[in-house]
Amino acid sequence: MIARDELFTHALDFYGAQPEYLWASSPNTAILRRRDTGKWFAALLDVPKARLGLPGEGKTDLLNLKCGPELMGSLRGKEGYLPAYHMNKSSWIGLLLEGPVPREDLFWLLDVSYGLAVK
């Protein structure tokens, strides 16, 4: 399990990216973008569990990351990985922060996503 603040600290330390909160109607939704291109490389959303097909009440944090199609196929079958929510599902993947995705995998995929967010 990864906490929001740990994710944001990592993004600042490694990429100089700070979370941006763009929507008043979704105050917990944050995006991370590259400083050089302005392109998004991550979006953190709090999504109702029911909308993701997950059991239980309330919301959960879903991290959407850019991902190449060759990697996408191998990840989608794993627990904790979902189709991206509100993003292009052929080039973005969702990771449950409260799920079983190992910390090192999440940070590696964050790095992959950062590398893909170029013009």
Q: How many helices?
A: 3
* Separation of the first and last Cα atoms: 32 Å
Order of helices and strands: HEEEHEEH
Helix content: 25-40%
**Strand content bin:** 15-25%
Give me the Rg, rounded.
13 Å
Q: Name the overall outline.
A: globular
The total strand number stands at 5
Regarding quaternary structure, how should these chains be classified? single chain
Quickly give the structural class: alpha+beta
Strands side by side in the biggest sheet: 1-2-3-5-4
Q: Which stretches are low in confidence, meaning pLDDT under 50 for 5 or more residues running? A: none
Q: Major sheet, described briefly?
A: 5 strands, antiparallel
Mean pLDDT: 90
Word description of this protein:
With about 120 residues, the chain is an alpha+beta fold. Helix content is about 30%, strand content about 25%. It has a five-stranded antiparallel β-sheet with strand order 1-2-3-5-4, with helices on one face.
